[in-house]
Structure formats: C-alpha cells, structure tokens
Design goal:
The complex is a heterodimer of chains A (397) and B (469).
Chain A: H1 5-11, H2 17-32, E1 77-80, H3 81-87, H4 89-92, H5 106-114, E2 119-123, E3 133-139, E4 145-146, E5 149-154, E6 159-168, E7 175-177, E8 180-185, E9 190-198, E10 203-213, E11 218-225, E12 230-239, E13 245-254, E14 259-268, E15 274-283, E16 288-297, E17 304-314, E18 320-329, E19 334-344, H6 347-355, H7 360-376, H8 382-396
Parallel strand pairs in A: 2-5, 3-6, 4-7, 5-8, 6-9, 7-10, 8-10, 9-11, 10-12, 11-13, 12-14, 13-15, 14-16, 15-17, 16-18, 17-19
Antiparallel strand pairs in A: 1-2
Chain B: H1 13-17, E1 27-28, H2 35-44, H3 49-64, E2 86-87, H4 101-110, H5 112-118, E3 124-127, E4 130-134, H6 138-143, E5 146-149, H7 150-156, H8 158-164, H9 175-183, E6 188-192, E7 202-207, E8 218-223, E9 228-236, E10 244-246, E11 249-254, E12 259-267, E13 272-282, E14 287-294, E15 299-302, E16 305-308, E17 314-323, E18 328-337, E19 343-352, E20 357-366, E21 374-383, E22 389-398, E23 404-413, H10 416-424, H11 429-440, H12 442-445, H13 450-464
Parallel strand pairs in B: 6-8, 7-9, 8-11, 9-12, 10-13, 11-13, 12-14, 13-15, 13-16, 14-17, 15-18, 16-18, 17-19, 18-20, 19-21, 20-22, 21-23
Antiparallel strand pairs in B: 1-2, 3-4, 5-6
Classes of the chains: A alpha/beta (397), B alpha/beta (469).
C-alpha cells in the first residue's frame, strides 16, 4: 500500500481523461518531490516527524457524493467536483489546480493526485444568491485520507457566500486530511468564503486556500482552525485587477498538544488594490502555533493599501506562539502596515473582572471572548457566525 | 575576478565629501589570504604566540564555513584580491600636530579636531588598518579607564585582554567573524572599572583609504559593574573603483548594573561591502544600547545583538538605514533572551531612494526558562520613489513561559498632504522632502551628540539632493 499508481487507479474511476491525466502528473510530482526539510524557511518551525503518509493511503469517500442543495438560481452550478469535471469540463479544466499548484510541494502534489470529494461552485455573471451555499466534508475513521477540494468561480458582478465545513464524526485515530480551495473572483464580484476546520484531534491537516481577484472584486475570506493535531494552512490572495479588495481573516484556538501553522500571502500584483488581514488566536495547555505572513507589493502596484496583523493570546505558561509578519515592498506609493503580538492575559484586565466578583475561570473566558469578538464581527454572513460562535463556546468550556 | 560585475559607485562622491588622499604606506602585505600572510601580520605586530595560534585557527574555520546564502548577494567578493594588512604610519602619534600632513588633511575635512576641541574625551582615529592618532584625557586615566587601540591593549594589558577577547563572538560564530579573527588589526579597546561613569563620549574615526583593502578592526569594550560608557564610531571613506571589504567584530561585555551605549554612523563609500558582527552580553540589570546608522556602503549586513544573560538585563537597538542608488542595507538587530525578566526593544527606521533597497532583518529569541520576558520591535520604512524597495523580515522564536512580544511595521511614501503643506509655505519640493526625511529619522538623531546630529542632517541633505521629485 501507499500513495502510488495502483492506489490512484483504484480510488478514482469514471473520471474524464483530462482529469485522470492531471492526477497522474500530480502523482509523478508527488513521487519526485522530497518531504520539505527543516532547512526550508517555510518549514523551519514545522515538525513533520511522526507523519507516516503510506499508512493513510485509504480513502473514505468515493467521489460523487451529491451535496444537499437548496433552490439555486438558474445557471448556478453546485455539484461534486468529480461529477462536474465531466459535465462542465470546459469551465473546470482551465482553472483546476491553476491557483493551488500541484508541483508546489509534496503535500500539494498528494492532494492534487488523490483529492476526493469537494465541490464545484459556479455563479454566472450578475447572479446574486441570498442564502449561503454550504459544503460539508466528513471523516469517520482513522487511518484514512480525506482530501476534499473546492473550486469556486464567481462570474462578473456575482454575489454569494459559501461555507466549507470540515467535520470529524467521532473521535478518530490518526489520519491524513486536507481541505483546499481555489477561488476565482470575477470582475466586480463579491464573494464571502468561510472555512471551518474541525477535523479529529489526531489528524494531520495540510491545506491551501488561494484566491485570485479581478478588477473591482471583493473577497471576504474567513478561516477557522480548531481541529487536527497538526494543521498547516496557506491562505493566499493574488490581487490582479485594480480596485480589488481582499479581506483575509482568521481565528484559531489551539489546546492540548495541537500544533497550528499558518502561512499567508497578500500578493498585490497591480495598483489600487487593498488587502486587510487579521489572524487572531488563543492558545492553551501546551499548544503551539506559527504564523508567518507576507505582504508583497509588486513594482507597478502603486496606491496599494495593505494591512496585516496577527494577535496571539497565550492562556497557559506552556503554550507557545510564533509570529513572523513580513513585507516586501517594491513601490513607494503604498500604505502598508503590519503588526504582531504574542502575550498572556493582561493581569489588569483579570484583576478588574475579579474585583467585580467574577471567578477567575469565567473572567478568563470573558477576556477570550472579547479578544475574538472584534474579528467575529467580520464573518461575512450570519449562519457562519452562529456556527463559529457555537464551536468556540464549546471549546472554551 | 574577471567576471566581476561592474559596480556603480556614485561618481559624485568625491565632490560631495572630497576625501581622496594618495596612497603612502609604510608596510603593505601581499594580496590574498593564506597562513603565511596571517603569520606575517602577527609577526609584524609582535604578538604573543596564543594570538598567532588563534589567528591560524580562525583562518581554518573561515575556510570551512560556507558563505551565507541569505540576505544580500555576496558572491562578488574575491577574498584573494584583498590586502589584509596595512599600516599607514609607523609610530603612534600623541598629538594632532604630529600626524602626517596628508592624513591630517583628510581628517580636517571630517572635522575631527574641532570635535575634539569642543568636548571629546579621546580621539582614536583609524587611518587604514591601525590606530595612528590617539589621545585620552588625563582624568580618564586617573579613573582607571583604559582607552587604547586594540593592538596596544594586547601589548599593555595582556591578561585583561586574554580574559575577554573572543568570548562574546567566537571565531566560529560566522564566516566573517572567522575572517576578522584571522586578520584583525586596529579597533578600540575600552575598559571601564567598577562604578566609574565616563561622562563624555569616547570616539574613534575609522577610515578606509586603499584600493582593494579590507579593514578588519576589532573592538572590545568591557563595562565593569555599575559603570557607564558611551562609545562613538563614525565612518567615512573616499571613493575607489573596485570593491573593498569591511568586516569588523565588536564585542561588548556589560556587567551587573552597568550601562553601555555604542553609537555608529556608517558612511562607507558605495563600493564597500560592510559585513560586521556586533554583539554584547548584558548581565544582571545591565543596559546595552546600540545606536546604529547606516548611510553608506554598497552592501551592509549588520545585526547588532544583545544577549540578555541575567535577570533584569535590558537591550536596545535604535537603527536607521538609508539606501540610495545601487545600495542594499540589510540591517536590523537581534535580541537573545537567555534569562527571565529581561526586556528588549528594537526600533528601525529605513529610507530607500533611487532604486535603493533597505531590509529590516531581526531575530527575537527567547530561550526556555527566560520567562516573563518582554520584547517590542518597531520598523518604519519610507520609500521616496517607485524604483526603491523595502522589506521586513522579523524572525521570532519564543520558547519560554509568559512572554510578551510585539512587532509593528509600516511602509509609506512621503505624504502628499505634508508636501503640499510645506510647499504652500514657499518651501521647494526638495527642501520639503528633506525636512520630512529629517523628521522621520528624528528619534535617531536626537539620541546623537550634537555635532553628530548636525553631521547626519547634513549627510541626509547631501543624499537627498537630486532626489526624484
């Protein structure tokens, strides 16, 4: 067993040839690429020891699970990616894995070769959908791989919200999980995208969420990371048209022995673009988190405005947060600001609350809620907000 | 070196600063680097055997260490095409009048004598690789303060020297500290005894004045318990057409309750590679402050660091970088928290213009057990035109409990509102921009002694002339 050609042929059947070819190419990249090493800056703080990939070369889902759907306006496509690949090849073929590239590293290649499940969302020009579209991805057992891939295409002026929820049913043993998304935001479109990662506490999770924003488009991306023992997520937005605005927000709550790693990129390829990033995390027990973000302003990208912040609230003495905000600015006519903080609960805040008769435990909880409150307000739609607040509530205990 | 790329060296340098003195050397070692050259340097200086061995061992380490593969591009340095030792004048001068006239002419342009006449305690002006001029006020000697060039210190205070030399930055620390350890020459040695406060800044001028000549000065400062000293190092260099390498090592030990401030204004000509290792060890409740200005050189890679060794130690880096045409200033700071309850701050201000590139590169490391430590980093960058570039690379590794760490950075251009306001008052665009830049670096200039602040403002003015409007 292992992730090889045989496994691939068994796992995927009935897919169009172009997709099979693409998977095979990705498999050869997977076989060629080494495991990232700790001398690689991106992976320096990321410990892959203990990851036994071949042990998870078993798949829970077949492609083709049809998601539940509410009534959608005509012309909108919302289908499992593998089915859509046949029916709408002309839409999907040019885009699939053009943002989340299969040859980027070993894990991206593995995901592109073996992705299972995930949805294709296509909203034509000028169409507005009021109700959010919900995609749910489940895992049920350990020792398996669950690798959903979401492809979102928003036509010119389209407006809608989409939620990817990654759910572990039952507390599993170790497994391999990903949950990547490619988001194409057409001219003038407005897209809300929320990903809530709640894989089992023993899972390995590696994912790429990458968006491309055309002229005058807006993306509001919200990443929530709660599950997995090891989670590495790259959140990246390329602003390729003037007037594009990317809002990238994230929260994470790490406890026990969880390790979370976030790499973000705000890639301003043209001028008059705006990006606003805020990742906030709370850590307790012996959890560790790494945040590394880069704002890149290309040479011609004048009048760009970029903001990047990472705030960490460290709730226990043994939890550790690392924060590395970086800038590469090649144009002077810009406004770029970034900031990062790592620190414990302010004893003055705690003292104030306790002096009002609030027990320490409740007081701490209130401080954490307050800490997340600012960013929760930025969740692009109500359903997602309710879900995320309930999840946080349950975890804060 | 046949493939060496052509390097633009800013041809107006000579008119701007006018420091160009014909070469006149008493001794000039051969080009290149091998054990014989190293032995020759050591023999010329009449050094004890341990130092000769130390140099040879360092040379071995230098040869084994790979070139750093990060930061600026260093591949154009040809170590075989550099003079590793020069001595411009045979004897140590005691007074200004005894200095050779051409050296004096150069210093006159820099204003050293005036500075000294005004209030400076001692001048240790380094012309080429060795200190040739040196004076120390009598009351300092009476207090037991030692302020010598490093070569003399090795001869006159061998035990004190040996106790501390190479303990903060061992030769194996990095490739360039190994190189310096093998071929070092000149630099300052300062010892401040227990409880002594040196009220006036001690300063040395460093110069490079020979084609293809590396300058490898070595500075060692020891602040004994409860003492205070402010040391100032300023650099200017005349223009030459091929690359020069400057690779200094500065070691500082700040003992319990002591405070040391080390101020640098680096203004090497724009063909110099400035690759410097600066590090201080701060013990219980001690304070170490680096005030570091980088204006010149083609490439600077310099990250002054403080190892906070005992509880209560405090480290401070205040840094400005100015990168013009063809320049890359890769500067920043490092704070290594080894003990609990230690604090550090890094403030970095950088300005890029005419295609220059400034990079802030910093490292905050908090070792296990260094609990309740605090660190704050602030970087501001100003880009004066759209050819220039600014980067921020802060690396943070926290392995202790209850640590507070903050980082903030901004990048912006000169704001149109500010320019408009000033220009509406009848100030030309160029003057207005210069005023704004001087205002931007004010947190730095206000930490400098007056004549340095004036000099820095004047240098900024020179750099800003002809700035793209």
């Amino acid at each position: 067993m292992g992730f090889n050609a045989e496994t691939l042929e068994q796992a995927v059947q009935g897919e169009p040839d172009w997709l099979l070819d693409r998977r095979r190419t990705a498999l050869s990249s997977f076989e060629r690429l080494p495991l990232p090493s700790r001398t690689d800056e991106e992976w320096r703080r990321t410990n892959l020891a203990g990851l036994d990939l071949p042990a998870y070369a078993r798949f829970e889902q077949r492609n083709g699970h049809v998601p539940e759907r509410s009534a959608l306006p005509s012309g909108v496509i919302f289908e499992p990616l593998a089915i859509a690949a046949q029916r709408h090849a002309s839409l999907i073929e040019p885009l699939l894995f053009s943002l989340v590239r299969a040859d980027r590293d070993r894990f991206s290649a593995l995901h592109a070769a073996f992705f299972t499940g995930g949805n294709f969302v296509y909203v034509p020009d000028g169409v507005t959908i009021d109700e959010p579209i919900l995609g749910q991805h489940f895992s049920h057992e350990g020792g398996t791989s669950v690798l959903p891939h979401t492809l979102i295409v928003a036509g010119k002026g389209a407006r809608f919200n989409y939620l990817d929820e990654y759910i572990a049913e039952g507390d599993e043993t170790e497994g391999y999980r990903s949950g990547s998304a490619e988001i194409f935001v057409g001219e003038g479109a407005e897209v809300g995208y929320v990903a809530v990662q709640k894989w089992g506490r023993n899972a390995w999770h590696l994912a790429d969420q990458r968006a491309r924003l055309e002229k005058d488009s807006t993306l509001k991306l919200f990443n929530v990371t709660l599950g997995a023992r090891f989670s590495k997520t790259r959140v990246e937005a390329s602003l390729v048209g003037p007037g594009a605005t990317a809002e990238l927000k994230g929260i994470y709550f790490a406890s026990g022995e969880q390790f979370f790693d976030f790499h973000t990129l705000q890639d301003h390829q043209v001028g008059n673009t705006t990006s606003d990033l805020l990742f906030k995390g709370a850590l307790q027990d012996v959890a560790r988190t790494v945040y590394a973000g880069l704002i890149r302003i290309e040479k011609g990208a004048a009048r760009s405005d970029a903001y990047q912040a990472n705030r960490n609230l460290v709730l226990s003495d043994k939890a550790k947060a690392t924060s590395i905000p970086m800038l590469e600015i090649d144009n002077n006519d810009v406004r770029c600001t970034h900031g990062a903080t790592v620190g414990p609960v302010d004893p003055n805040h705690l003292f104030y609350l306790r002096s009002r008769g609030i027990p320490e435990r409740t007081a701490k909880r209130m401080i954490v809620q307050g800490f997340f409150g600012q960013v929760l307000d930025r969740i692009p739609f109500q359903q997602a907000r309710e879900l995320i607040e309930a999840e946080l509530e349950a975890r804060l205990g | 070196m046949a493939t060496s790329p052509k390097i633009d060296v800013g041809t107006d340098y000579k008119e701007k600063y006018g420091f160009f003195v014909p070469e006149d050397y008493v001794f000039k070692a051969k080009r290149g680097l091998n054990p014989e050259i190293v032995k020759e340097i050591s023999w010329m200086k009449g050094e004890p055997e341990w130092m000769t061995k130390f140099r040879l061992r360092s040379l071995e380490i230098f040869r084994k260490k790979p070139m750093p593969n990060w930061g600026a591009d260093l591949s154009v340095i040809d170590f075989e095409n550099i003079f590793y030792y020069l001595r411009a004048s045979d004897k140590q001068s005691k007074t200004w009048e005894e200095l050779p006239p051409d050296i004096k002419a150069t210093y006159d342009r820099l204003g050293v004598p005036e500075a000294e006449r005004k209030f400076l305690a001692g001048v240790s002006a380094q012309y080429e690789s060795e200190v040739v001029y040196h004076s120390l006020q009598k009351e300092l000697s009476a207090k037991g303060v030692i302020f010598l060039d490093t070569d003399s210190a090795l001869r006159e205070h061998p035990d004190l020297f040996k106790e501390y030399f190479g303990t903060v930055i061992p030769p194996a620390d990095n490739k360039f500290s190994a190189l310096n350890s093998a071929v070092w020459s000149g630099g300052s040695f300062i010892y401040v005894p227990k409880g002594v406060r040196v009220d006036v800044p001690l300063q040395a001028y460093f110069r490079i004045n020979a084609e293809n000549m590396g300058q490898f000065e070595r500075t060692l400062i020891i602040c004994d318990e409860g003492s205070f000293v402010h040391y100032i190092e300023g650099c200017t260099a005349p223009i030459y057409t091929s690359d020069s390498l400057h690779s200094a090592v500065v070691e500082i030990i700040v003992k319990k309750d002591a405070r040391c401030r080390y101020t640098t204004i680096q203004n090497w000509s724009t063909n110099v590679f400035n690759l410097v290792t600066k590090r201080a060890m701060a013990y219980a409740d001690a304070t170490m402050e680096w005030v570091d200005g980088n204006l010149g050189s083609q490439i600077t890679m310099k990250y002054p660091s403080v190892y906070l060794m005992e509880p209560g130690a405090k480290g401070d880096v205040l840094s400005i970088a100015f990168a013009g045409k063809g320049q890359h200033q890769d500067a920043g700071g490092k704070m290594i928290h080894v003990a609990p309850n230690t604090t550090s701050t890094i403030t970095s201000k950088s300005i890029s213009k005419a295609g220059g590139r400034t990079s802030y590169r910093g490292h905050i490391k908090v070792y296990p057990g260094a609990n309740n430590s605090k660190s704050f980093v602030k970087c501001d960058a100003l880009l004066l035109d759209d050819n220039s570039r600014s980067d921020t690379y802060p690396y943070n590794d926290v392995d202790a409990d209850n640590v507070t760490l903050g980082h903030e950075a901004t990048v912006s251009k000169v704001s149109d509102e500010q320019l408009f306001y000033l220009m509406s008052r009848g100030i030309t665009r160029n003057e207005a921009e210069t005023m704004i830049v001087n205002g931007f670096i004010e947190p730095f200039t206000k930490e400098l002694p007056l004549e340095y602040a004036v000099e820095l403002n004047r240098l900024i003015q020179l750099e800003m002339e002809g700035s793209v409007g």
